[in-house]
Amino acid sequence: MRNDITKKINKKGQKANKIISVIKEFKDLLNSNVLDIGCGTGIISSNLSKYFKKVYGVDVVDNRIIKEGYIFKKVKNEKLLFKNKFFDVIISNQVIEHVNNPEKHLSEIYRVMKKDGICYLATPNKYWPIEPHYYLLFLAILPKKLANLYLRIFRNKDYDAYLFSYGEIYKKLKKYFIVKNLTKQIIINSNKYYLESKYKIIPRFIIKLIPESLLNYLVPSFILILKKK
């Protein structure tokens, strides 16, 4: 059990480093108030607190392993319990595919983000062959009924996520935000951005040659920076 927790802390620590390495190119970390939506174990929020002015974490359940360094607030749904234009930086890391109301999730991010703020949003690609939560081939592209049947057979549960293609997520985001897709840049500079090994399947020199419109079908996840229109 202790080894599992250590592995989880190390893995989440790498993800925190990736997030920090991206955000610092857009914001002054030490002067930024941060909201980590869906903070889960609290490992990433705690790591972020070492670099940012103040960090808040929210989630619908309290499953925290680490509770130090940040302020936690439990929420009931996508509604964020903060005043308008409160945060310099908002992080939605692998969250939007799990919420019941993605539109509300995005409108709340927009509401609590400062005019010159940014949002780091990462979400899995539905066209990546292996679904990242249950590790089953092509699960994410199946219609809901077939996905539920597939998952009941292999995991004895219903499918509780909805993954987006780049076109689908961009359509939702562009209502509120200017979208900067950093996925290609981050894969090419994988060491600089502490990228996980799953992104390194395709050699970097090949990635450079692939148009972004095609690459959006070939990557495991999208990493995006959002700014208010």
Summarize this structure as a short list of keywords or feature phrases.
229 residues, alpha/beta, seven-stranded mixed β-sheet, 7 strands, 33% helix, globular
Number of H/I helices: 8
**What is the helix content?**
25-40%
Separation of termini? Answer: 46 Å
Low-confidence stretches: none
The number of strands is 7
Layout of strands and helices, then pairs:
Elements: H1 2-23, E1 33-37, H2 43-48, E2 54-59, E3 71-74, E4 87-93, H3 102-112, E5 113-124, H4 144-155, H5 166-173, E6 177-181, H6 183-188, H7 204-209, H8 212-215, E7 221-228
Parallel strand pairs: 1-2, 1-4, 2-3, 4-5
Antiparallel strand pairs: 5-7, 6-7
Descriptive account of the structure:
- The chain is α/β, with parallel strands linked by helices.
- It is built from 8 helices and 7 strands.
- Strands 3-2-1-4-5-7-6 form a 7-stranded mixed β-sheet, sandwiched between helices.
- Helix 3 links the parallel strand 4 and strand 5 (113-124).
- The model has no long low-confidence stretch (mean pLDDT 95).
In short:
This protein has 229 residues and is α/β, with parallel strands linked by helices.
